[in-house]
Amino acid sequence: MSRVSIEVENHIARVTLTRGDKMNALDPEMLDAIAAAGESLMGRDDVRVVVLSGEGASFCAGLDVMSFGAMAGKDPEEMLMPRTHCNANLFQQVPLVWRKLPMPVICALQGVAYGGGFQIALGADVRFAAPGTKFSIMEMKWGIVPDMGGMALLPHLTRSDVLRRLTYTAEPFVAEQALEWGLVTEITEDPLAAAMALAEEIAGKSPSAIRAAKALIGFAEDNMHDPDAVLLEESRLQATLIGKPHQMEVIMANMQKRAPVFD
Question: Pathway of this protein (predicted)?
Fold first, then answer.
């Protein structure tokens, strides 16, 4: 049974978690499929934006509890410590692959995004949530810490005291609170429609400039205590764009009052 579908149209890749009857809960097959879906888009020059969503009532309910039994007999160090995906293990790659993609990723959320499901959403550049969507850093409920890349992402999004409270308690919180804490971008009645509308807008911009912008923002976030390095990278990336075909097409389109057309 398929766990993830990918459809590419008009330079937008729609990636959908397709285990809706199980609230898109993460079993081993689902983890492999999500990581593979993200990795399959890594070299797709025709894809300018990704929209990530989950079918059914919920985006993702987190780890399938039945998977605990399957993992119980395995050595945790052997399962978690090898860096099987560059700087990450499989569990970490599932959310981080979306941040590693060169093009923006927009996530549409509804129902619940618990535990690993919440961390997957954090890997996106932008998150639209339906009113009342529930979130939780749920790992403490099971006596463990967040281990799917959340701690590489959350400190960039919310305050330390909020992060600590949510991690220590595993308490659920709703989209309205998540918006206040900086964990979702916008609340909307139809998050998938909002995600697609934003994707269409981004897909009409210079593909090389959009990718450079995502790379630059990531570099700045990772080097916020080294402004000299950020300023140098800003200049380096700008030099790769000025006078190149995509930028020249943007200039001509602006002058001719038309939409740009990119190869």
Answer: Lipid metabolism; fatty acid beta-oxidation
User: Can you tell me which residue has the tokens 């934006």?
Assistant: 49
Coil vs helix vs strand at 245: helix
Domains in the chain and their CATH numbers?
4-202 (3.90.226.10), 206-256 (1.10.12.10)
Burial pattern 108-131, b for ≥16 Cβ within 10 A else e, equals bbbbbbbbbbbbbbbbbbbbbbbe
CA torsion through residues 6, 219, 123, 174, sign: negative
The partner residues of 49 in beta bridges, in order of sequence, read 12
Q: Sort 241 into a burial class: Cβ within 10 Å, 0-12 / 13-18 / 19+.
A: middle
**For the segment 30-57, what is each residue's pLDDT rounded down to a tens digit?**
999 999 999 999 999 999 999 999 999 9
Predicted TM-score (pTM) of the model is 0.95
Residue 224 CB-density burial (10 A; 0-12 exposed, 13-18 middle, 19+ buried): exposed
* Segment 108-151, tens digit of pLDDT: 999 999 999 999 999 999 999 999 999 999 999 999 999 999 99
Give tens-digit pLDDT for 75-118. Answer: 889 889 999 999 999 999 999 999 999 999 999 999 999 999 99
Question: Which tokens hold the place of 66?
Answer: 């039945």
Q: What is the 3-state secondary structure (H, E, C) of 100-120?
A: HCCCCEEEEECCEEECHHHHH
